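chain below, 159 aa
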Amino acid sequence: MRRYLVIYAIAGSLILSALVVVHVTAQERTQERAANLRAQLVETQAKQAELQIRLQQLEEDLKPENIERSLAGVGSTHPEELREARRRELEIRNKSIQSQLDLLAISRTRLEAAIASADAEIYRQNAGVAVTTSTTTNNQGPASNSIRRQKKPRVKRRR
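prediction:
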């Protein structure tokens, strides 16, 4: 009988060790995923900053005096057509950059949500390890049962 108890204890500790290894591996994968998401967020923010600078430059170039200045060295019998063509070209670039910024804003929002989700998962996994460890070391059942409120004795009042 004692031999069986030892075998069960060994088997139980092996199973617990395997569960901890699986849990740690899953936690590492989640942490890697969160790190990758953070790297993508940094890249997205850098692209947004770069596009914002380009957009500001285009808005500056769209001013009538700057369009005029950019075409100062070009001779033409119809300069108003050249100015209009330049303005349309700059507006097309402006719209393109604005749409890229809109897509990056959506991507950034999704990445931030995914990071928050990954961080919450990491937190849950860490909490799961703490509960599992306290449960197995205390031999008192779930961790929530190890902390119990003590009832105050009731005192009967006289009327």
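The chain has four helices and no strands. The domain at 2-135 is CATH 1.10.287 (Helix Hairpins).
thats it, cya
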